[in-house]
Amino acid sequence: MAKRSSLSIRIVEGKNLPAKDITGSSDPYCIVKVDNEPIIRTATVWKTLCPFWGEEYEVHLPPTFHSVAFYVMDEDALSRDDVIGKVCLTRDTLAAHPKGFSGWAHLTEVDPDEEVQGEIHLRLEVVPGTRACRLRCSVLEARDLAPKDRNGTSDPFVRVRYNGRTQETSIVKKSCYPRWNETFEFELEEGAAEVLCVEAWDWDLVSRNDFLGKVVVNVQRLWAAQREEGWFRLQPDQSKSRREEGHLGSLQLEVRLRDETVLPSSCYQPLVQLLCREVKPGTQGPGQLISLIEETTSTECRQEVATTLLKLFLGQGLAKDFLDLLFQLELSRTSEANTLFRSNSLASKSMESFLKVAGMRYLHGVLGPIIDRVFEEKKYVELDPSKVEVKDVGCSGLHRPQTEAEVLEQSVQTLCAHLGALLSALSRSVRACPAVVRATFRQLFRRVRERFPSAQDENVPFIAVTSFLCLRFVSPAILAPKLFHLRERHADARTSRTLLLLAKAVQNVGNMDTPASRAKEAWMEPLQPTVRQGVAQLKDFITKLVDIQEKDELDLQRALSLQAPPVKEGPLFIHRTKGKGPLTSSSFKKLHFSLTTEALSFAKTPSSKSVNRLNQWLSALRKVCINNTGLLGSYHPGIFRGDKWSCCHQRDKTDLGCNKTRSWVTLQEWNDPLDHDLEAQLIYRHLLGVEAALREKHRQLSTGPEAGRGPTGPGEAPRDPLAELLQVLGDLQEAHRSSPAGSPPSELSRILELQT
């Protein structure tokens, strides 16, 4: 069993930011750090003091983390980026908001004396003496100190202060992982100071020394313990007065901390088996438990429950059957064809999650080139006459105003070209579509055709498929390519408008060019010939897409399973800086890497159009290595040159390492490997929250006319799935009560208590 923590982060927007550029504006972006380790960088929003990001992330991290900080930066092309301010949320603050922290937070100044990181290894003892006891402090080593010098390191030393006396260690040059192994002693007297202060500093020859952090030890608690040794986290100096909050603007955030104690796999088997029995093909009954879960799930958490259930059934190989059951449940309560899958039901939310998990790579292959072309061309496109901006055209000296009709005509041509390219790419992509996605669409198409068999509803099965494929997958990706990892940056205003109009056209095609969709915006009428042609193309594509036999499905799945899918792929820049400073020249070498669960390879030719940032690659590497039993607990971030390590200056080449391995801080992405036990735990946690509603429903069913009529097998007594579920929840609740996981080690608790 293990304690697992995760952060759900949504960086919404900023407002009233200060201007950092001479133009009176800023180019803001955000960096997110967990305990001073950068893990997220948002896109830059250009030339604004009120940026909107709307970016969402899921971060898995160790339960022992202390804080998460959001830095708002101003990007500069010719100089170092400016720091505008930050918002820091401690673990205690997040734990005090079980439903998550949500709202506006004022940005505060970033003081260098508060930007500390790293830990220091101390041995603290109370030594008896003939006259008085003595306090002995051994400063052993430190790790992950903040680099304060331009060469990317520091020259650290430690200052120990107690009862008016100060002693210092030697200086270790050019290292963020120094080792001192020096001991200092102080007399303990009646009425002496109650705290011992250990400060780390970066020595500078010319300017003042830089503060690296401190540890304050409670001497009275140490007296009771007599001797303690361990790694102490360096704390900032927060003694300085602050300016009034709000002068740096505000940041709107949604952050939720979730701590889960995950039991051994065997504990979840009864729950998993019970849910799987509900969706397996051939079982009798209408999927009573799945229907009850949907009934008792509130709108605000339906997406979360849908995603978790989908991942659980994906792990069991039953995703297609789970979705098929949801299709049947929704069709059974739908009487009007035009309302089918239009609500935020469990079926709609589950299908959205399914397409992101199983079809994202397919989406990148089909849509990626079209999105790239829109971004690169940057053409002005507008169809709404009330929004047309007339501009000058022509060569130098022969400028003339471009007429509104010319703008509209060119816009129609551009949009028709993009829409035609997209539909052609879709038409050619039948075999590229993942087998499980094709099989799921086949089931959906067949179920809808059985439910609405009349000739007047002949388009309904096609619209059912396009309601997910076009309206909930392709169109959202066109509107926000950054959120679907199709681009690294948000679109500018001109490109955003082009993408919006293209998404509208795709929606009209997906709606099969119905009169209702045409009536919304009359100025979209010039696109109708292309839309009508697109409807025919799309229907032909869907006909081929769902024409997949069981044998073909198995062959496709077998072929896909022969090679390990890439975890991450894309270009990385390897460079060697010549000299110091942001304006100096560098030599770059661009290589295209591909990481799978089996190998890391690279080549000179591109294998993907996505540009991956360093933290995403680190996250992917950690996920691949997480099950490695030989994973080191620490390592040397430097090299052994001459006769010592460049990082910690140790002369033993076989030294175990000076920097701890951060193997548990990872970003969750659509192509992450499944965590079966965690998904089962999350489902249990949700069901426990609605247990009262489930018990009430069980009481009603037990006393109603359907009592005792549960589905059975041949020769079996009627079973009650809801009663079984309540029993399973009780057993899991008891297993959690008896679980010792989640409590910190007693030795660590005693050490932490020494800090005031």
UniProtKB/TrEMBL annotation:
Protein name in UniProt: Ras GTPase-activating protein 4B
GO biological process terms on file: intracellular signal transduction
Keywords, alphabetical: GTPase activation, Metal-binding, Repeat, Zinc, Zinc-finger
Domain C2: 1-105, 116-232
Signal peptide region: none
Ranges where the record places region Disordered: 700-756
Organism this protein belongs to: Bos mutus grunniens
Classification via CDD domains: C2A_Rasal1_RasA4, RasGAP_RASA4
Stored InterPro entries: C2_dom, C2_domain_sf, PH-like_dom_sf, Ras_GTPase, RasGAP_CS, RasGAP_dom, Rho_GTPase_activation_prot, Znf_Btk_motif
Occurrences of domain Ras-GAP (ranges): 301-511
